[in-house]
Amino acid sequence: MRVRANGNRTETRSRLQRRRPDLWKPYLSISLITSLLLSFNAVSCGEKEEKKISPLGITEEEGAETTYDLDQIQEAGELIAVTLSGPDTYYEYKGKGFGLQFELAEHFAVSIGAKLRMEAVRDTAELFQRLKKGEADLIALEIPENHMTDMELQFSGVRSCLSDSTAAAKTGWVVRKDAPFLAEALDGWYKPETRSFLQKREQLRLSPGGNVKRRVRAPFQNRAKGIISPYDTHFIRHSQAIGWDWRLMAAQCYQESGFDPEAVSWAGARGLMQIMPETAVHLGLPADQMHQPEKNISAAARYLRELERKFSDIPGRAERINFILAAYNGGTGHVRDAMALARKHGKNPHLWNDVAPFILRLSQPQYYNDPVVRYGYLRGEETYGYVTSIRERWQRYRAAVHGGTTGAAPAPSRKNSRGGFKSKVLSAEELEAKSKQNTP
């Protein structure tokens, strides 16, 4: 399982050529001439044992092993680290990486002037395999000392001690021994205070008070006059462009920011609709406009339209809305993972009430490590609660504010086209209790 599948690196020279395709071209003709001259000289001098020379002017002995060390990483501008998916190691939320091991690896990558590419694999055996093949530069996971017996690898960088009543177990990150300058840079960079600082920052982000910095307004500005928020005209205008009920956008906005245009989340999302900086770039929303109400709402509407296209295989707008909202919060990849798990366990991957239990279970190792899962760990309870809360608030807005609907009405209960199955939006507690009864 690879959380971010960006392709493998094979042997070191071909990897360098792929990253820098023009690296060898200027020297090709010179090297060819040089190789011919060297071959001629070797014969004329009567050497008994000749060395084979490649067209690039590199002898077979020299070309047999080319290390990929710190200089090559810096030249390529990319550090590739492998780890395991999990809440304390690495996971993606709204397209951005989080987790202590990710934070540490990113901190180191910045210190050497490179960007981090973090990839999650299925088990420790694959971690070692990827590192030894040169498909990764380091293992960003604190491996116990007694789990590493390979003489070609060594501990470097992040270290810790896990102690019990009988003994202390040393753990640490792992690199290849043929990358001594990378190992030296890691050892020079790492200090226990670095780990402590990043760990406290991660805990603060996930604490109840550290989720979103916002000043929450009332869910209704004027119920008697049918005014939900100061931004109703923006919701009406931009929901029309995507065929949504403007009251649904208002309900989503309240869930995201409490109608505070200056809101900032622990993940870095900003503005009324809590758009991530990376998503803003994709949507063409300049950083200096992220807190402008109409600009933020307009960008969110465009993003919702994109998500609707990605879930065009979900029949019916009322059902599809659940998947779109879940993807807005947790990411399309994680929602597709939950759909794959539902299909594997004999459920309908196009029905939210069949998929939602697996959204919740993506926070459990036996599910986020399942072979059908590509994007790993998800804070599933948050994503499920996000969808449920918005649907419930939408119902209240529709009951209090009539007219202005441009999208589909919510359907708390309906008949499915297959048989007479009725579905309704359940609370997180009801759904979890139901899913436990039906756990395979």
What can you tell me about this protein's structure?
- The protein has helices at about 10-20, 30-45, 60-65, 70-75, 100-110, 125-130, 180-190, 190-205, 230-240, 245-255, 275-285, 295-310, 315-330, 330-345, 350-360, 365-370, 380-400, 430-435, and strands at about 80-85, 90-95, 95-100, 115-120, 140-145, 155-165, 170-175, 210-215, 265, 415, 420-425.
- With about 450 residues, it is of the alpha+beta class.
- Helix 9 packs parallel to helix 12 (about 295-310) and helix 10 (about 245-255) packs across helix 17.
- Helix content is about 45%, strand content about 10%.
- The chain is built from 18 helices and eleven strands.
Keywords:
single chain, 440 residues, alpha+beta, five-stranded mixed β-sheet, 18 helices
List the helices and strands and how they pair.
Layout: H1 12-19, H2 28-44, H3 60-63, H4 70-76, E1 78-84, E2 91-93, E3 96-98, H5 100-111, E4 115-121, H6 124-132, E5 138-144, E6 153-163, E7 168-176, H7 180-189, H8 192-206, E8 212-213, H9 232-242, H10 246-257, E9 264-265, H11 277-283, H12 293-310, H13 317-330, H14 332-344, H15 352-361, H16 365-368, H17 380-400, E10 414-415, E11 422-423, H18 428-437
Parallel strand pairs: 1-4, 1-5
Antiparallel strand pairs: 2-3, 5-7, 6-7, 8-9, 10-11
Helix pairs in contact: 9-10, 9-12, 10-17, 12-13, 13-14, 13-17, 14-15, 15-17
Brief characterization of the structure:
This protein is an alpha+beta fold.
